[in-house]
Write a structure and sequence with these properties.
InterPro entries: Ser/Thr_Dehydratase, Ser/Thr_deHydtase_PyrdxlP-BS, TrpB-like_PALP, TrpB-like_PALP_sf
Radius of gyration: 19 Å
Distance between the termini: 52 Å
GO cellular component, one term: cytoplasm
Number of strands: 10
GO molecular function, one term: L-serine ammonia-lyase activity
Structural class: alpha/beta
Helix content: 40-55%
Keywords: Cytoplasm, Gluconeogenesis, Lyase, Pyridoxal phosphate
Protein name: L-serine ammonia-lyase
Mean pLDDT: 93
Order of helices and strands: EHEHEHEHEHEHHEHEHHEHHHHEH
Low-confidence stretches: none
Number of helices: 15
């Protein structure tokens, strides 16, 4: 077991999948919520990052020191996993990170450093300045690693066991691509009695690196993140994410990229708090927006009769809520209530 303590806990849990009566009424089909906001860190990243860190701790002859650069959920997942595994961790945040995230990390007892104005600068400092000084240092990337995708793929395994009947579609948000990579990997690795689920990969305008690549027909970067959905703030998706998108464009797999506005993503988070009594970040609101706007049938039910559509089972991946507060949601309602197509019920 290497340096992994005998009493170490796995840093992720099996999460519930529940039918949402409110969103099902809006969509006209069966809409299920995969509640990964209930992970120990507050987001789905506990699965992938926890999987990577557990493997590294088990294989290491000495106690590893984990290093992660993140302004949000990846850092929290690393810190939470380090606590479960009994290992030290250092998280480097860019100056753009909200104080809420810094305070959450400090409360978990990890070392926090601030460097650079954006994630790439924080990451470079971590890899070039901090890690070379630590022989036990282990780098924890936010999204671009096979073990992270392996961990995220457990979502699909759980869904197969939790939903009675076929899964016609899964909707998830995309930042760097770790989540959608895992979901696609999970779908393609399992055998299905009927057609494989379609996957809808959602971004907000201004954090739409995947959709920009789809539009360009090649793997490109966007110049900057201008969306309020900072958790989706990767200017370039992983190479593996682009490979899945290419296969989707070629019709080899069932994956499609779409974008929604900040206003609709924000107001979807507000409405979800009212419907589900759960607080989720605007990055998760992007996923919910597709349902609240009434667009699910366009993506998953073309050619269906009304009776057929009523029987369709669609899963919304509720990816996280660690970075949201009631005050923030109230601000969204004031700022975007008139502009958004998503309205409070």
């Amino acid at each position: 077991m290497g340096s992994l303590p005998a009493d170490a806990k796995l840093p992720w849990v099996r999460t519930p999948c529940v039918l949402s009566p409110e969103i099902s009424r809006v969509a006209g089909c069966n809409v299920y919520l995969k509640l990964d906001n209930l992970q120990p860190s507050g987001s789905f990243k506990s699965r992938g990052i926890g999987n990577l860190m557990t493997g590294a701790a088990a294989a290491s002859p000495s106690t590893p020191h984990f290093y992660c650069s993140s302004g949000g959920n990846a850092g929290l997942a690393c810190a939470t996993a380090a606590l479960s595994l009994g290992c030290p961790a250092t998280i480097v945040l860019p100056t753009s990170s909200p104080p809420l995230m810094k305070n959450k990390l400090l409360a978990l007892g990890v070392e926090v450093q601030i460097h650079g104005s954006m994630w790439s600068e924080a990451d470079r400092y971590l890899r070039e300045e901090l890690m070379p000084k630590d022989k036990n240092g282990v780098y924890v990337p936010p999204f671009d690693h096979q073990q992270i995708w392996d961990g995220a793929s457990s979502i699909v395994t759980e869904l197969r066991e939790q939903i009675d009947g076929p899964i016609h579609g899964i909707v998830c948000s995309v930042g760097g691509g770790g989540l959608v990579n895992g979901i696609m990997q999970g779908i393609e690795s399992l055998s299905w009695s009927g057609p494989r689920p379609h996957v809808l990969a959602v971004e907000t305008i201004g954090a739409d690196a995947l959709n920009a690549s789809v539009r360009a027909g090649e793997h490109v970067s966007i110049p900057a993140i201008t969306s309020i959905a900072k958790s989706l703030g990767a200017t370039r998706v992983s190479a593996q994410t682009w490979r899945w998108a290419e296969r989707g464009l070629a019709g080899e797999v069932r994956m499609k990229s779409v974008v929604v506005s900040d206003a609709d993503a924000a107001m979807s988070s507000v409405r979800f708090a009212d419907d589900a009594r759960l607080l989720v970040e605007v990055s998760c609101g992007a996923t919910l927006a597709v349902a609240y706007k009434g667009d699910l049938r366009e993506h998953f039910g073309q050619g269906c009769s009304d009776d057929e559509w009523k029987t369709r089972n669609i899963v919304l991946e509720v990816c996280g809520g660690a970075g949201v507060t009631l005050e923030l949601l109230a601000g969204y309602a004031e700022a975007y209530g008139k502009e958004a197509s998503v309205k409070l019920a």
